[in-house]
Amino acid sequence: MKTLSKIYMWLIFALLYAPIIVLVIFSFNRAGSLNHFSTFSLYWYKELFRDAQALKALKNSLILAVSSSLLATVIGTFAALGIDRMKSKFLKTAISSVTNIPMMNPDIVTGVSMMLLFVAASGMAFRPIKFGLMTMLIAHTTFNLPYVILSVLPRFRSMDRHLTEAALDLGCTPAKTFFKVELPLIMPGVISGLMLGFTLSLDDFVISHFVSSPDFQTLPLYVYNQTAHEVKYSMYALCALMVFVILGLLLAVNFAGSRGEKSKRAKGKGGIAA
User: Fold this and answer.
1) How many C-beta atoms lie closer than 10 Å to residue 48's C-beta?
2) Which helix (H) or strand (E) holds 17?
3) Which ranges in 86-205 belong to alpha helices (H)?
4) CA distances to 235, 237, 238 from 227, in Å
5) Of 30, 47, 48, which Cα lies nearest the Cα of 39?
6) Inside any domain, residue 8
7) Which helix or strand (DSSP H or E) is residue 262 part of?
8) pTM exceeds cut of 0.90
9) CATH value at residue 181
10) C-alpha to C-alpha distances, 196 to 9, 58, 164, nearest whole angstrom
11) Is 165 helix (H, G, I), strand (E, B) or coil?
């Protein structure tokens, strides 16, 4: 049984990570071929940074990812606060369930629905809505919101209510109580939601495809347009860089979550000892 479990585990790892490993290895191949590996080189990475269009797409991706993740984090944190403060358990459960629906929807459904929304709004507005940064920012923020709420809401639910009540009894306003008492306690969830939103926005293709314009392209769109014709070997380097960035962000999210749990346990032990 243990042998079958190990075989199953290695098979899953092979199916998930073998294509990524091959991509990363051949991004350092100077020969520019998938048939054989000649010498280890950073040539294609140097060529990548000489590509003005790729650098512009990188700039657009970073602007979009940072803006949408920050906006989604602010809105999602206060949305999680509102859901947590609801007195009706039925309403709280219903809204939490509705919030999870966009995460279960296929990305193409979200992309098409956002595109139709902008087209309909453009028909009702005095001026037509131009697809580009603003439409992508709205779409990515909407896409990231449920993930931020999912990261922050459990922190509210596990928080010690007596701390909030004590702060209010001592004369703190609800706003001051939130920023001075509650926000530091839920900060690991907020950071996790922020990084998760940044990662999802950075590597999104489907939703961006429906709400973008030729004037504003992100890295996934640029890679797709390049590989749709003649494959440039610098694209392997670009994809490998995206893998490294996303891997680093995921590790940071896990580190932030584990650090928050350790600090929470340490405070709990300190309270028991006191």
Assistant:
1) 22
2) helix 2-26
3) 89-104, 107-124, 133-157, 161-169, 174-177, 183-202
4) 8, 13, 12
5) 30
6) no
7) helix 234-273
8) no
9) 1.10.3720.10
10) 26, 18, 28
11) helix
**Residue 155 Cα distances to 78, 159, 161, 192, angstroms:** 13, 6, 12, 11
Q: What is the Cα–Cα distance from 205 to 52, expressed in whole angstroms?
A: 21
**φ and ψ at 29, to 5 degrees?**
-85, 115
Q: Walk along the chain (274 residues) and give the pLDDT tens digit of each residue.
A: 678 887 888 888 888 788 888 888 888 887 766 677 777 888 888 888 888 888 898 899 999 999 999 999 999 999 999 988 888 888 888 888 888 888 888 889 989 999 998 888 887 766 778 888 999 999 999 999 999 999 999 888 888 888 888 888 888 888 888 888 888 889 888 988 998 899 899 889 999 999 998 888 898 888 888 777 666 777 788 888 888 887 887 777 677 666 656 665 655 454 444 4
CA separation, residue 61 to residues 90, 106, 226 (Å): 40, 22, 16
Tell me if 44 is assigned to some domain: no
Q: Which of 29, 50, 45, 32 is nearest to 237 (CA)?
A: 45
| 185 inside domain | yes
> Residue 25 CB: number of other CB atoms within 10 A?
13
Please indicate, yes or no, if residue 37 is contained in any of the structural domains. Answer: no
Residue type, 157: R
Residue-range definition of the domain harbouring residue 78: 56-263
Number of structural domains in the chain: 1
**Which amino acid, one-letter code, is at 242?**
M
Residues 6+ apart with CB under 8 A from 227: 235
